[in-house]
Amino acid sequence: MPSKKLDFKAGQYVVYPTQGVGKLVRVEEQTVAGQKIKMLVIDFERNHMTLRVPVERAEISGLRPLVSMKKMDEAIASAKGKADAKRMIWSRRAAQYEENINSGDPMKLAEVVRDLQRRTAADTMNFSARQLYLRALERMAQEFAVLHKIDLDSASDKIEDILGVPKEIDLNAVDVDDDEEDDEEE
User: Fold this and answer.
1) 31, 68, 111, 167 - which has most CB atoms within 10 Å?
2) For 5-22, how does the pLDDT look when each residue is reduced to its tens digit (9 = 90+)?
3) Contact between residue 41 and residue 28 where contact means Cβ atoms under 8 Å apart
4) Domain range holding 50?
C-alpha cells in the first residue's frame, strides 16, 4: 500500500508521539542485518535522548512535522471549552488520557488539558490527574514554544494564561503586618 512520503530535513523540529518535540539532527545510513537503512536521527534535548527512526517507518511511527500556528490556535481554543463529563471509573479515564497524550495529536492533548485543568483557585486535583495534566500541558507547550520561539516555561505559562487557569497559591508565603516589619528592623 503506497503512502505519501514524508519529507524531513536536518535542523527541522519534528514531533514523535510518545516523546514530544525533537530536532532532526541528520539523516544517516546504517547497516542492520546486512541491509543499509536510512535513519532519521532525532535529538530530544529535554529528555537527553537520541532516537533513530528508519525513514521507511517514519509515517507508521507517527513522526510528523510541527503543526501550523492556525492548528495550534485551534487546539488551544478547544482546550478553553467546557470539560467533558465522562461517566467512567478513574482508571479507565486515566488510561484514555494517557493514550491521548501519547498520540502526539494537539487536539487530543487539548482534550486532556481541557478536562483536567483547574477552573478556580479552590479546585483540587489528585496526584495522578495532576501528573497527566502536566504531561499534556508540557507536550502542547513544547510545540507552542518552538512555533513562537520562546522557552518551554514561558509557553506553559502563556497557554495557561490563555485558558484562564488560576495561578498556584504559594502556601509558604506569610503575610507580614507593617507593625511587625518595623519591629524586625529595630
Assistant:
1) 111
2) 568 888 999 999 999 999
3) yes
4) 13-65
Assigned C-alpha cell, 6: 514524508
Q: Between 178 and 63, name the one with better pLDDT.
A: 63
Residue 122 CA to residue 145 CA, distance in Å, equals 29
Cell numbers given for 162: 490563555
Window from 5-14, 54-63, 127-136, 155-164 with minimum mean pLDDT: 5-14
Arithmetic mean of pLDDT over the chain: 85
Residue 121 and residue 133 share a domain: yes
Q: Do residues 112 and 139 touch, judged by C-beta distance below 8 A?
A: no
Instruction: Say if residue 93 is exposed, middle or buried (CB neighbours under 10 Å; 0-12, 13-18, 19+).
Output: middle
d(CA 114, CA 184): 46
Q: Is the domain of 127 the same as that of 106?
A: yes
Distances (CA, A) of 176 to 35, 168, 181, 183: 71, 20, 7, 11
